[in-house]
Amino acid sequence: MQKILKKFRLLDTPVANASYNMAVDEVLLQSSIESGMPVLRVYEWEDALSFGRFNKVHEILDLKAVDLNGLSYARRLTGGGVLVHGGDISYSLIMPQTALNDLSPKESYRYLCSFLLHFYKRLGLEPKFAQDQDLTISKSTICTASNEPYDITINGKKIGGNAQRYSKKTLFQHGSIPIRVDTKLFKELFLENANLEDINTLEKLDIFSSKDELKKLMIHSFIESFNVELIDDTLTEQELQKIDELQKTKYDTYKWNIDAIQL
Questions:
Q1: Is the pLDDT of residue 146 over 80?
Q2: Residues facing 48 on adjacent strands
Q3: pLDDT for 17-35, tens place per residue?
Q4: Strand 170-178 relative to strand 88-96, pairing
Q5: How far apart are alpha carbons 263 and 260 in whole angstroms?
Q6: Which of 96, 165, 168, 199 is the most exposed place for a label (fewest CB within 10 A)?
Q7: Which superfamily does CATH assign the domain made up of 7-102+163-257 to?
């Protein structure tokens, strides 16, 4: 069995808007690079949208409608398509690449996603990777509409989304577990049919646990899958200052979010 680092810093951060959540991810990534301490973060969103690193947002969303609805949005550090948030819980995982140095990026992605399979199994579901089934593999600018080899599926339908990025010898992965989707809120924001009605969610699978219960189960599934110790922690004052600055200079800016200009 693949070995993984034994101690992780655990952060359960509060419900927040898109720019704050993405700024926290980047600051924690930098903190982990500097300290060498791996991180598992679990968190929630206000109603919001997040974009993949290379999405052409103008071609996907009606930005005037997004603004009129008062929704926050931010471009992620990772690729993938547009995600809708608010009825989901998310995680971010940061660790040195050397912790999985005998695995290729695809192998490490499959390995790390195994804790999510364990999570869904603990809920009484039967998750599988798309490539392990006779499913059509496809890509889309809308995350929930794609079907890639290591997407997790339940009853033959993709559930949630996960993405990776390698940076300065560090592996960063984050993802989302959909509990419910406010189709009425988000449907009219897309310039093309996003098929939001077809998104696989826990509620559609008759799972009605609270977000707090699901976050606890996610954490326990991580511990059980990788046999690690999680050390409860909070953001430091220095990290909070960096998050505030990064929100203002990057994740609240048109240049990064819409024009995808590196800042």
A1: no
A2: 72, 85
A3: 999 999 999 999 999 999 9
A4: antiparallel
A5: 9
A6: 168
A7: Bira Bifunctional Protein; Domain 2 (3.30.930.10)
